[in-house]
Every structure is written in structure tokens, then in C-alpha cells.
Amino acid sequence: MNKFQSLDISKFLPHRPPFLMVDKLISIDDEHVQTSFEIKEDGIFIDENKQFNEVGLIENAAQTCSSIVGKSYFEEDDLSGEGNQLIGFISAIKKATIFGVPKIGDTIISKAKLKSRFDTEQYSICTLECTIATSNKELLSCELNLFIQEVNK
Questions:
Q1: What is the CATH number of the domain that holds 53?
Q2: pTM for this structure?
Q3: Is residue 3 domain-resident?
Q4: What is the sign of the dihedral through the CA atoms of 96, 112, 136 and 108?
Q5: Which end of the chain is least crowded, N or C, by CB within 10 Å?
């Protein structure tokens, strides 16, 4: 069994419900990540048409992307997320194409790839590409810059 299938991703992201936009970490390495997120009726990015809106897709992409760089701040055997605390934010949306939005009950799969990374002792700045799809349709393609920083406990 993949060790990430049982990993509680919420322990590694600073977000908490209702702003947590990633349910499961499917796979991750130093340059790629794949996550899933089930669209629920009580989500904060549900619009009047009972769909997950574009802002929610961008936030899901950012949370998915941040896990690639964020994982380097934790020890490899830290599967509980106790070794560190991080903050991060989108510093630029370089490109975003929205092809559609998911509806309540859909599960979206997000795949991200690290394009570049610059590290200092205090923070990391990175550029990542991300795609989001349901089982039968691509929803988003984007390129983001993220800023990620370790927070003193």
C-alpha cells in the first residue's frame, strides 16, 4: 500500500475546513503531486448553480502545488506532520485557463509539476504547473508562483 493513501494531508497544510480544498494525497515526489477533492454541498466555493466556482479551483491548485515544496520542510518519516508548521500564499497567477467547473458530488483530481524553485534560509519561491480534472473532463490548466515559509513553533 502506498504510504500516502493513509496520510492526513490536513496536518501538512495550514488550511482548515471549510477552506481546506484537498482531501487525499494520491502520490508525491520532489517534482510531482497528485491529489483529490470531493465537492460537497456545504463548501464555501459553491455558487448559486450548485457548482464549485473558479476561485475554488484556483485555491485547490495552490494547495495541491504547495505540497511539493512543503514536503521538503518535513522529515521523510514524519507522516503525522508534527515536525514543522508552514504558511504560504499565491504570489502570482501567471496563466489560468478554466474549461469548466465541477458540480456537487464530483471528485476532482489535481496534478502538479514543479517548474522552478528558489530557496533561501527563510522561504521558498516556486513556479508550478497544475491541471485539474474530473473523471471525464479537464477543468483547469494553470501556472502559479507560490511563496512558502517555515513558521517558528
A1: 3.10.129.10
A2: 0.89
A3: no
A4: negative
A5: N
